[in-house]
């Protein structure tokens, strides 16, 4: 009971900042999304470099293969690293690869950088920190472990809120796994459930040095404003850096904003210059000799048919790019366009709900049934969280029915025996098209936490290539195949009964989960 009272100082939600969409969409095909490059870097790649994965086992095996093959860098950002045998096997792979690098002639080239959340990564006696300390002790010059601590958990609040509950205030929630020039974007954490029977989404971007450089720099920037894990399990800030919960909050957030925006803006400038250079060299009047020289050196790349846009959301630092882009996509989606939106935790922000209910596109929203919710069967107060999600879902469905939008906005519940559901993102099908030309994939859940509390990152993948569009379509179909359509009778089932106290408490606490 007292645990909720401790959250009282934060129960009043901050006034949302109204952001004007940067522009409206242009008319032609996939190119209509090029406005996104006004906000973030645009990376043009060949669709042959993109592979969509479908299962946790495939994700886990790929992680191990990529770690073992890495020569220059391994960069992993996650909420936490689990403590089971599968996670230990990942750590062993890292140790083996680092050992090989150490034994190679000359100075070792391989660098390993791991970014986790401080509160989640410190939970329990055996935790993410204790799993990684042996690597720090064995390879102190090559391994860096950064633990992000939200600046909003400080003072008396930090002293009083117990373990687990302190994770409600704000987290490092980005999930990026990169190995040399190969990048995996996902919503999955580094934990055995995500390697076995917790369904998520995963995409591999192969041989993409510019994208790998961007996410390396992003993780480095967050790492620089995070606590650094030491060999004796203590933590300390980098010299001269403002402390996240002991130092001045405004100063800390300003520095963090500068570091992250510097990464975004410098990459954007680099890509614009590269785009201009490529554009001019492809013009009819460009030098034939220089083109022949490029071909001779093997540096001529195929024309891109796929564009990657990294979308960052870090409201504690005043960065809300992902929110702006998502709202614009929902606002501008035309009549007869279809948006398939999925989230493991259905708790949309009011702005997203208003846009879905007030715009013209068709929506198919996939969410977790109570039995596949990650909190199902949890002990204590957390055990009531699936019921709170049912209550939120029922309220939204009632609003859909009240507005007579059941045909245009459809809810579907994922259900699969022995599995839990954690997939998030969206697929956008333009009017008249049977295949999606855009997908969002990464860590955000489209909820209050993702927008206001946590550090999030996803990518918009825009493609003209039919084979890649087919891959994305199959991914969507495979997920939605395990679902049933929500109707009024859904909420009459005995397992959908929501206790009165849950209904009363949900409006107060919905911004924390």
TrEMBL record:
Protein name (database record): CDP-diacylglycerol--glycerol-3-phosphate 3-phosphatidyltransferase
Gene it is expressed from: Pgs1
InterPro entries: PGS1 (IPR016270), PLipase_D/transphosphatidylase (IPR001736)
The protein's annotated pathway: Phospholipid metabolism; phosphatidylglycerol biosynthesis; phosphatidylglycerol from CDP-diacylglycerol: step 1/2
Catalyzed reactions: a CDP-1,2-diacyl-sn-glycerol + sn-glycerol 3-phosphate = a 1,2-diacyl-sn-glycero-3-phospho-(1'-sn-glycero-3'-phosphate) + CMP + H(+)
Signal sequence coordinates: 1-19
A GO cellular-component term linked to this record: mitochondrion
Keyword Cytoplasm: no
Biased composition (Low complexity): 281-300
Subcellular location field: Mitochondrion
